[in-house]
Amino acid sequence: MLKKISSLHMLNRRHIRIKVMQCLFAFKGTESDDFKKDERFLFQSIDKMSDLYISIFALFIELQKKANTKLALSQKKLLATEEDINPNRKFADNTVLQFISSNNMLREVIEKRKLNFWDIDFEYVDVIYKSILESALYKDYMSKGPSDLKQDKDFIIDIYTDIIAPNEKLYDYFEDKQITWVNDIPVVNTAIVKKITKLKLTKPESFLIPELYKDEDDKVFAKDLFYKTLLNQTKFIEEIATKTTNWDTDRLASLDGVLLQMALCEFQKFPSIPVKVTINEYLEIAKEYSTPKSSLFINGILDKVVKEYKSDNIHNKVGRGLM
After folding, report:
1. pLDDT tops 80 at residue 78
2. How far is CA 79 from CA 33, 43, 89, in A?
3. Which stretches within 27-148 are classed as H helix?
4. DSSP percent split of the chain into helix, strand, coil, nearest 5
5. Helix pair 136-143, 122-133: axis angle to 10 deg
6. Mind listing the pLDDT tens digit for each residue in 208-249?
7. Angle, CA of 106, 181 and 296, to the nearest 5°
8. Which residues lie below 8 Å from residue 240, measured CB to CB, with a gap of 6+?
9. What is the Cα–Cα distance from 42 to 153, expressed in whole angstroms?
10. Which of 86, 165, 173, 299 is such that its CA lies 20 to 30 A from the CA of 185?
11. Alpha-carbon distance values, 48 to 7, 19, 312 (Å)
């Protein structure tokens, strides 16, 4: 699964940092504890992203199935119209939906991981299907003649980005299904759109199966960042405290404290990661996940730390221009 077969992996380093941050923030133990349970939680949280991705492709399968069922029922009407007898099959026969629905490897993964929730929770399929049928996108697509693969892909991407992904009921459903999915949805949405954009009918069945990591190094990075931050937590907290005499101690106990510990860990324990990259990453994460003033606070502390390291000529980075 970790072998790099394409550039369409879901996780980049920022996503990995966010997952580690969430796991560290939830950690209630001490440096002397066995972290195996927490490590499992970290990687289960990451692996669950692919479950969300697969379940959305299962939804595509159910939408096409529903379209075919509706068409078949219309043809069996007692007083069937010409339109009922010879319906417009363009949506049901959409090339992308056919590629997804006929993918045996995808179906096996759905079955094995029990990710077709839609058999039981079919009302969500109904809601999405109804929204698609009522949309201007659908009416415009169906009113035109036969389409090529690009037009079929554009249509599926449009209904996904405009109708499926923003659906609040579906969002709430995923949140109830798996709490970690709330933060995963934007990443998975991007991965799905990229996957459909790159789809070609000559692609192997494995093309639809998600790649989480770019390579093995990224998985190792997740584990190392988690462990090295925890194992040096007391030292990092003490170092941060010397730079934060004018700040509320509650802030250090919050997410900001975790982000600072992770940044120090990268400064000291990951010599090949440029200091600027580390600072920029944690400032962006703070803007998204913490308070409005967090990025200013974190930037001020990290600036002091970096200046001190330079002055003392410690924790130098490998390579040129990495400080």
Report:
1. no
2. 72, 57, 20
3. 36-75, 82-85, 95-101, 104-112, 122-133, 136-143
4. 70, 0, 30
5. 60
6. 998 899 999 999 999 999 999 999 999 999 999 888 876 666
7. 135
8. 252, 257, 260, 261, 264, 301
9. 34
10. 299
11. 20, 11, 43
Which pLDDT band holds residue 180 (cuts at 50, 70, 90)? confident
Give the span between the Cα atoms of 78 and 152, in whole angstroms.
33
Which structure tokens are listed for 207?
């093309």
- CA 154 from chain centre, in angstroms, equals 22
Band of residue 77 on the pLDDT scale cut at 50, 70, 90:
low
Q: Which helix (H) or strand (E) holds 310?
A: helix 294-312
- 205 in Cβ contact with 104 (< 8 Å): yes
What are the CA-CA distances from residue 200 to residues 89, 107, 149, 280 (Å)? 21, 19, 8, 36
pLDDT above 70 coverage of the chain, percent: 88
DSSP assignment string, 171-189: HHHHHHH-TTHHHHHHHHH
Residues 214, 27: contact at Cβ < 8 Å?
no
Handedness of CA 315, 319, 322, 323 (dihedral sign): positive
Write down the mean pLDDT value for the chain: 89
DSSP-assigned letter for residue 321: T
Copy the structure tokens of residue 287: 């803007």
262 close to 22: Cβ distance less than 8 angstroms: no
d(CA 9, CA 108): 21
* Straight-line distance from the first to the last Cα atom of the chain, in angstroms, rounded to the nearest whole number: 34
Sequence-distant (≥ 6) Cβ neighbours of residue 15 within 8 angstroms: 187
For residue 281, which phi and psi values (nearest 5 degrees)?
-65, -45
AA letter at 272: S
